[in-house]
Amino acid sequence: MKPFKSPLLTRRPSANQPASQTSESAGPPPPKRRRVSEGLDPLPPRTASNHDSIPQSTVSNDPTPPHAVRKPLLSIVNPVATPENGGGGGDDAEAYYTVLWRKFTTKKNKTWDGDGVLSVRGGYAYLQDIDGREMGKSNCSMPLLPGSTMSVGGKEIEVDTIIAKKDYLAGKPFLNPTPAPAFKASAPAAKTRDGKKPLLSLKSRTKQDKLEAKQVDHVNVAATGSSQATNGKFKNPLLDKSALPLVAKTAVPQPRHDPNAPGALVMKRPPSADVPKGKQVVDVVIDPILSKHLREHQREGVSFLYECVMGLGSPHGQGAILADEMGLGKTLQSITLIWTLLKQSPIYEEPPVVKKALVVCPAGTVQNWRKEFRKWLGRERIGVFVADDQKKRLRDFTKGKCYHVMIIGYEKLQKSYEEISRDCQIGLIVLDESHRLKTAKNKSSAAIRSLNCDKIVSLSGTPFSNNLLEFHAVADLVNPGCLGKLSTFKREFEGPIVKASQPEATAKDREKGQARQEELDRLVEQFMLRRKADVLSKYLPPKTEHILLCQPTNAQAEIYRNIVASSVFRGALGGSSESAFQLINILKHACNNPKLLNNPKSLTSPNDTPEPEAVNSTTKAVLEAVPPKLLKSPGTSAKLQVLDSLLHRIRTDTDEKVVIVSHYTSTLDTIGTLLTSLSYSYLRIDGSVAANKRQDLINKFNNTPASSTFAFLLSTKAGGVGINLIGASRLILYDVDWNPAHELQAMARIHRDGQKRPCKIYRLLTMGALDEKIYQRQLSKQSLADSVIDNKSSGSGFTKEDLRDLFTLDESGRCQTHELIACPCEGKGNGGGVIPSDDTIEEQADQSPAVVEDTDNEDDEWQDLPTLLKASQVDVTAQEKALKDKRDSLRKSKGGDMMALMQYAHIDTSLLSKTAPKKAIARLDMNDDEDEDENERVAEEAVDCEDMLQDEALLHVLKEEGSRVKFVFSKTTS
Fold first, then answer.
1. What is the 3-state secondary structure (H, E, C) of 198-216?
2. Do residues 218 and 245 touch, judged by C-beta distance below 8 A?
3. Residues 6 or more apart from 144 whose CB is under 8 A from it?
4. Closest C-alpha among 780, 790, 785, 793 to residue 820
5. 789 strand-pairing partners
6. Average of pLDDT values for 756-778?
7. Strand, helix or coil at 40?
8. Quick check: is 231 in a domain?
9. Which helix (H) or strand (E) holds 846?
10. What pLDDT score does 187 carry?
11. Together in a domain, 617 and 756
């Protein structure tokens, strides 16, 4: 223990030190030297004034480093203020952030209430929650940095991260689905979608199985009692040196089928990180009995479906949408996938991925699916249970081991889903014609969700063309949460995309809508595959499509004018959309056959059920404006006259059969009466025909000659899907529909696998009336449907001007559709119907007088060309975008989306008439010497048009005296 000593502030003078020196040393201490880094000057420059104040002991023998200049401080650049993010400050600032927000509180320990998105633009900061709902705005003229805090709309926020402008425009902050597990071999029996027990990966399941095994062993040991012997640890009786080492299995796993065989189709392997420890990966090879029949696009489709359902493709789930057009073999691809998952697994010595599979389809196609399974796999390979009878017991499938696949209709599933989910675990569900599930509240959708199956494959040859919300319903059923919440999707995607397509949309609206559309396409293509029917061109016989524009009869035109001119009709133009649809329905029947208006109750809807609102005061008042004599006069329908002539020529000159399609059962009744009067036998399928009787009618039609069954009447709603009518090689579409997909489906009934004859398709339109104008809008809609997702509603959102244009009857006798595309061919062919390339279309557009631009100012023309720059300075993306915009504007000036008609031959039927040369000579008023040359020229044009048609039966109809067909669009795809 040492005694305490007080600290000495000054050094105690030594005994031999003089007192004078002691007093001098009591002055202020010398200044401290600043500690600096190496290479910097530690002391200020020495001067006479301060040199004496520095003690000699401090500066002696102290080498000073050379003097160095300090580097300037680095300026911190706000990443939000960069040009690519909207750049600049003040009112022009534009930036986007993810933020945390909370309500104002006086609590000591504050917590955040939720996440949000903050956008700064135009001098204001706008706050949205993660679902896109507006929460308020506040003044803000400068970009922010992560960690910045401010008050917006009564909320306290803190900036978390910065969002790039392109990511915000794409909607990524609002659409961030949780990725699904990468790979699962076989689904366990536990429930998944109801939240009771989530699916485990293979690795997790292995650990879970070991843990459960240990628990079971512990229970067994405890039940047998305990003793000193049983409580002791097990000891190996053999020494390590004397025990034989365990030899790991080195055998190479053998797949079920040879992956090296010619034409073998091998599926993608799962990543090694997802394979359980101690397990090996084995190739999954498609059974050669199926793969040898798969075409190239079908092999690609099977691989895509396999990767999606196994979690190897889309990160959003284990579902897939196969949206191939009709006739591409979606059924065969689905059967191949089902058979593969029922028999194989990518993990060696593991059970197959799926034990039970379910095929859900419309009731009318149940037997067709059963037939396809038997066709490709036979009766002995797989057990298929068809739930088409009330007497069949579902437990034979759910609890039995004989059946692995069940085929069931949507209506039957709504009644049986509880029994199915209770008694067995479905491993794979295939939904045929899934566009029927277009609402989230659909009863069939609820039944499918209750089955707790993760692997769902959706089949639909029809694009989801009514609106994006219908597509969201199907996509969310297949991969739950892949497109976010419905309310968020509607607000942040459907709204901006539709708004960008409106004529009054601003540049910012179009930019945002385009970005949202591109982001949506990027997400969708991860789990949806769509191919066009063009890929079948080398497998199927050629298909020729004729669009016949029929000039209305005098009585029909007068009836049409009276309807449109009625005061009730004019007053209904500004009414509700429901009344507008009733008026459209009346005019469609006037185009089909004015006699249908005699009985207002015959005005049925396209879905084969009477419309209760069809016979109301408005409808009756409109029909009262039409003189009764006109409605009772014979031969008032131009299309019915053309149909009569066409059927007579097909029956007389050929041995082919014909399918006649209409959207209205009342129209089918009229056509059936016509066939009976001509003594032509026919069969018919509409909504009144029971589902279990339809396949028998189809088989009878396909297997009998034309002398026994000449025609088949088909309703688009009742028989537009899943029906194979290859016994016929000609199809007549009697009326048009807003949705072009319905007519594409109808065309695919005859032009599909198994067809041996060239197919002829006739579409009848009333020239200048509602038919032709619906077809014009149909062309625009079909171009949108090519991207699978159509963002326009069929028939909704009509303005008063749109309705007035729809209801106007053009009696000029010219083809209005041909004039809209400004084609200079004058009805003489325009290339013979050979499908041109994009370059050809653009070249035609450049040569068209309708798009000739003023080229007097050469400076303006050169401004569009890229300037000469170095290769490193050229922005290729910007130049490509500029060229694309210019090409799009060029197309719009030519009729917009109707440019698809440039793929057709344009034929004015007056050139085919025998009197056409005389009329041409009379108009030209030439000399006698020139008459002969002109006569030869017109005759050559007529021969050229006949060669383009390549249809003798149609040529006879067009050349008949008094033929109602005035213009023809024709296209042959081969």
1. CCCCHHHHHHHHHHHHHHH
2. no
3. 80, 95, 97, 118, 120, 150, 159
4. 780
5. 464
6. 89
7. coil
8. no
9. helix 838-847
10. 42
11. no
State how far the Cα of 818 lies from the Cα of 811, in Å rounded to an integer.
Answer: 15
Give residue 430's pLDDT.
Answer: 95
Query: Who's near 755: CB < 8 A, 6+ residues apart?
Result: 540, 541, 726, 729
The 10 Å Cβ neighbour count of residue 182 is: 14
Whole-model pTM over 0.70 = no
* 469 and 604 housed in the same domain: no
Same domain, 778 and 818: no
Q: Could you tell me if 765 and 820 lie in one domain?
A: no
Question: In what order do the strands lie in the sheet containing 124-129?
Answer: 134-139, 124-129, 114-121, 94-103, 155-163, 149-152
Q: Is residue 121 part of a domain?
A: yes
The answer on pLDDT for 741 being more than 80 is no
Q: Which residues pair with 431 in a beta bridge?
A: 360, 458
Domain termination residue (choose one: 174, 196, 230): 174
Whether the pLDDT of residue 265 is over 50: the answer is: yes
Quote the CA–CA distance of 292 and 263 in Å, as a whole number.
Answer: 7
Q: Does 970 fall in a domain?
A: yes
The number of beta carbons lying within 10 Å of the beta carbon of residue 851 is 16
**Residues pairing with 529 in the sheet:** 322
Q: Per-residue pLDDT for 294 more than 90? A: yes
Query: Confidence class of residue 861 from pLDDT cuts 50, 70 and 90?
Result: very low
> Residue 909 belongs to what domain range?
814-848+893-974
- As beta bridge partners, residue 828 has 907
- Please give the Cα distance from 545 to 972 (Å, whole number): 6
C-alpha span between 115 and 130 (Å, rounded): 6
Q: Give 89's DSSP letter.
A: S
Last residue of a domain, one of 174, 193, 228: 174
Asked if residue 862 belongs to a domain, the reply is: no
Within a 10 A sphere around the Cβ of 725, how many other Cβ atoms?
Answer: 24
How many Cβ atoms are within 10 Å of 535's Cβ, its own excluded?
17
| Residues paired with residue 464 on neighbouring β-strands, in sequence order | 789
User: What's the mean pLDDT when you consider all of the chain?
Assistant: 75
Alpha-helix runs per DSSP H in 459-601: 468-478, 486-489, 495-500, 507-524, 554-565, 567-571, 577-592
At 355, the pLDDT band (50, 70, 90 cuts) reads very high
- Mind listing the pLDDT tens digit for each residue in 332-341? 999 999 999 9
One domain for residues 430 and 454: yes
Residue 796, classed as helix, strand or coil, is: coil
Instruction: Tell whether 665 and 595 lie within a shared domain.
Output: no
Query: What is the rounded distance in angstroms from the CA atom of residue 690 to the CA atom of residue 363?
Result: 9
In contact, 766 and 772? CB cutoff 8 Å: yes
- Total number of domains in the chain: 5
609 shares a domain with 693: no
Question: ∠ CA(744), CA(747), CA(752), 5° rounding?
Answer: 110
pLDDT at 314 over 60: yes
Please choose, from the candidates 647, 673, 686, the residue with its C-alpha nearest in 3D space to the C-alpha of residue 593: 673
pLDDT tens for 381-409 read: 999 999 887 778 888 898 888 899 999 99
Check whether 760 has a pLDDT greater than 90: yes
What pLDDT band is residue 821 in, cutting at 50, 70 and 90? confident
- β-pairing, 155-163 vs 149-152, is antiparallel
Instruction: Tell how strand 124-129 and strand 114-121 pair up.
Output: antiparallel
CA–CA distance, 867 with 874 (Å, rounded to integer): 9
As given in the structure block, the two tokens for residue 229 are 């012997």
Does residue 307 sit in the same domain as residue 368?
yes
* One-letter amino acid for residue 933 of the chain: D
CATH of the domain at 374: 3.40.50.10810
Residues whose CB falls within 8 Å of the CB of residue 613, separated by 6 or more in sequence, listed in order: 578, 582
For residues 794, 800, 801 and 803, what is the CA-based torsion angle, rounded to 10 degrees?
Answer: 50
Residues 40, 66: contact at Cβ < 8 Å?
no
Q: What is the mean pLDDT of residues 820-838?
A: 62
